[in-house]
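Entry 12.
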Amino acid sequence: MRMTSTFTDPTSADFLRTGRRVIQREAGALEALSEAIGESFSAAAALLMAARGRVIVSGMGKSGHIARKIAATFASTGTPAHFVHPAEASHGDLGMVAEGDVLLVLSNSGETPELADIVAHSRRFGISLIGVAGRAGSTLLRQADVAILLPEVPEACETGIVPTTSTTMTLALGDALAIALMEHRAFTPDHFRMFHPGGKLGARLLRVRDLMHDNPPLVPEDLGMGEALLAITRSGFGVVGVTDAEGRLAGIITDGDLRRHLDGLMSHTAGEVMTRNPRTIGTDVLAGEALAVMNDRKITCLLITEDSTAIGILHVHDCLRAGVV
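Predicted 3D structure (tokens):
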């Protein structure tokens, strides 16, 4: 049912004033949380770090929504985790919680009745339990192996009944735990890309080796330009690399080189037409950096080298297809 107001219609300034108050109040709550965390935070991080199984995050209502996000953040940063709904846990999903797991249970009051079974299950089977709540002495914090007490701050609404600052603090606490574990596991961008292969995040972390074509088109320096042109046509890249007698990359022939030597082109060898010491790139370079080089040089291809030997080729279209920008 849509609620109707008996008050005067708010002005733009009224909305803005409320918005700023809410944000300032939540920002203040995060400052309070930063000052409040201590040994219990370190103990929770150590317990999560030592988990032989998975981190099981649970909560009810708004805390449940926060728990889902925390579980997703853990999973994407190297800590295997998933969310278990406490009500579903009471109807079979407790089987998802096993020995070696660590439970991270969220409840602002610490007395949420739906959490009773999952907490009891952890105590019965010796499963480590981290409790996060905003009420000292609550059942959840008393039962937990590690109890994290959120600081007492008002909710953002003037009535104090809508979970706002409390959920913001809980979310920030989950992020802090996830990043603490990530940093101490030496989690790298390559690891992150493994869990984010799609979308812009994955594209930003792609490396040249992920996009390059093996077996680049190559011809020897002494090859006649008639044969070199056939190699360019067959490759489909519009360029061909030129190698010296030892097989090392000596140069590249592009359409610009062809235009510059158009008069009497067929009387030349590849070595006479090529551009010497072409710009190349390594396999471990980010694809975004390779794209920047191509844009800067106004070229469409880069040869990939290893110890002066051409081992691959990257075309600008390869980067664009993968979403690299």
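Annotation: The domain at 18-187 is CATH 3.40.50.10490 (Rossmann fold). The chain has two domains: 18-187, 208-321.
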